[in-house]
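User: Before I run my own analysis I want an independent prediction to cross-check against. Here's the chain; please return only the structure tokens and, at the end, one sentence I can use as a sanity check.
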Amino acid sequence: MLKLISAVAIAFLSFCSATVFARPFTDAGGRVVEVPDNVTRVLTAGPPASVLVYVLAPDKLTGWVREPSAAEKEFLAPSVRDLPTFGRLTGQGGTANMEAVIAAKPDLIIDVGSVNPTYISLADKVQQQTGIPYVLIDGSFENSAETLRQVGDLLGVKPRAEELAAYAETTLKELSDGLAKVPAAERPKVYYGRGPEGLETGLSGSINLEILEAAGATNVAASAGKGGLTNVSLEQVLGWSPEVILAASPKFASSVKSDPSWAGVTAVKDGRVFAAPSLPFGWFDAPPGINRLIGIRWLEALLYPKAFEGDLKADVKTFFKLFYQVDVTDAQLDTLLKGATANPG
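Assistant: Structure tokens:
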């Protein structure tokens, strides 16, 4: 009898250990998704999600959407530098292979960013095809702290998420407090130029210009309307007369300073052209994820040096240690901030 009871007990425990318990989760698209209680492997649908999972739980990240470059790997934790690349499930130019997605055996697929019917439909389709729970997370910058807490809860890393969320809340509060000291007339008109020619930018409401608007500056391209990214002409930029140019491409940041066709732009005449830092992820834009929190510290120092008394280099070291889990040397700081500040030394 004892042998029989023992056998039944072992069988029951084996059944319980093999059972994946789930809980309902209502995502940003209003979809109710059954999410495993214990998530150990996460596949990310796009770059913002990759950054978010990396900073919260690098051990749960199955791979990258795009293989990091050698320059980017220098600022990533060694454990994630050489993870496999799966491509992207979402956005323009989706490259992920469904067979590879299934073979990765993720417990969960996460997408972070804007949520609309297209993304909802894609999430439903992928979930149906693979049988893998797929959740959509609001990636708006103003909700950074809530995003960290929500996904931290999903991944079972609440203490880590709370630490990062507290940093996000402090950063945004200090930004708000500092901006309160800056009169509207002293907030600069800024043009953000993407691409090697600098003639792609974001309209009013573009997620790509989200932290510029958060930082209280005027996006000169907002006068061209509301929307996402758009191509503009040099004549338009001249007409907008920006006081500062932020360049996504170091090539554009360098060439525009000596390009005679741009010489009439106020920012060029005044030597106020700066390259947006981009390692290991964009500080201003690409991808439009949680990585932009350090971009706030950069914009404070660049646009409002009198209103914000922080030490940018110290802030960078703190952020990289806390979020990316790497120690940054002084030499690496110079690499990170090359062409990005008014006082590079």
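Sanity check: The longest strand covers residues 108-113.
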